[in-house]
Amino acid sequence: MITLKSPSELARMREAGRIVAVVLALLREKIAPGVTTEELNALAEETILKHGAVPSFKGYRGYPAALCVSVNEEVVHGIPGSRVINEGDLVSMDVGTIYKGFQGDAAITVAVGEVSPAARRLLEVTAGALEAGIAQCRAGQHMGDVSAAIQNYAESRGFSVVREYTGHGIGRKMHEDPQIPNFGEPGRGALLRPGMTFALEPMVTMGTWRTRVLDNGWTVVTLDGQLSAHFEHTIAVTDDEPEILTRL
Ligand code: MF3
Ligand code: CO
Predict the structure, then answer these.
(1) Position 1 in a domain
(2) CA–CA distance from 26 to each of 37, 42, 93 (Å)?
(3) Rounded-to-integer distance, Cα 207 and Cα 79, Å
(4) Residue 98 CB: number of other CB atoms within 10 A?
């Protein structure tokens, strides 16, 4: 069942989302060659707690950190640690918060210093695919319109969308119904209504969309070792334009 949020619930999701956006803005400033992924995680956790929220990822199915940091061929769910960020890395940072019982979830991918033109294009196209999906999040549209918009945006520009991981409904729980694949058919799936809240999160690759999970049980990498990017926002369907809850 897809839950509808009341105005007071939406207000709490707005705050959860705002804190996520603040964290990602700080991470964007902090990331540089020489910084470790654990230092990024510490900044994320500290900032979340300082704002009166809780990191939703920490302890989720045993996940050990507040932040996911996924570098280059890592798609999602990279675990922070002693790894040092280098010039030329493509780094995805994904963070979630719980504020007064409601969740926010978002991710950005950033280029550290100079990266190849192809890597830069991958970033632009993944961010564009997310925007294309968000634009479909209007009352009267179907879930499949959102999925298809993301897929078409990425594939028509020569990239692939990851299929084993999806966007999701979000609210009191991080993962609520429905699952929102980054591929699909227009006109299919649930009808969107005001008060629905979703996390859309295209994961886009340069080569194959196939992935595998490393031995740590978490880190997802592309099967062919090529680059991947990931952007995510939590959004609300309204009577009018979609509201992006994780944008400052
Ligand atoms: N944004 C991701 C998701 O929606 C992050 C979850 S990471 C986990 O699934 F560690 F919490 F699992
Ligand atoms: Co998510």
Answers:
(1) no
(2) 14, 12, 11
(3) 23
(4) 19
Is position 2 within any domain?
no
Query: 126 CA to middle of ligand 1, Å?
Result: 18
CA-nearest residue for atom 2, ligand 1, is 94
Query: Among candidates 104, 102, 27, which has minimal Cα distance to 70?
Result: 27
pLDDT of residue 90: 98
Note the pLDDT of residue 83. Answer: 98
Q: Whole-prediction pTM value?
A: 0.98
**Strand 220-222 relative to strand 243-244: parallel, antiparallel, unpaired?**
unpaired
| Low-confidence residues in the chain, pLDDT < 70 | none
Backbone φ and ψ for 143, nearest 5 degrees, come out as: -55, -40
Q: Which atom of ligand 1 is nearest to the CA of 61?
A: 12
Domain presence at residue 114: yes
**CATH number for position 141:** 3.90.230.10
Ligand nearest to the Cα of 200, by number: 2
How many CA within 13 A on the CB side of residue 69? Answer: 27
**Residue 241 CB contacts under 8 Å (≥ 6 apart), including other chains:** 138
Ligand 1: residues whose CB is within 6 Å? 57, 60-61, 63, 68, 77, 94, 105, 168, 199, 201, 232
Range of the domain at 129: 7-244
184: phi > 0 → left, psi -120 to 50 → alpha, else beta; which? left
Q: How many helices (H) and strands (E) does the chain have?
A: 4, 15
Identify whether 150 is part of a domain: yes
How many domains are there within the chain?
Answer: 1
User: What phi-psi label fits residue 52: left (phi over 0), alpha (psi between -120 and 50 degrees) or beta?
Assistant: left
- DSSP summary character for residue 42: H
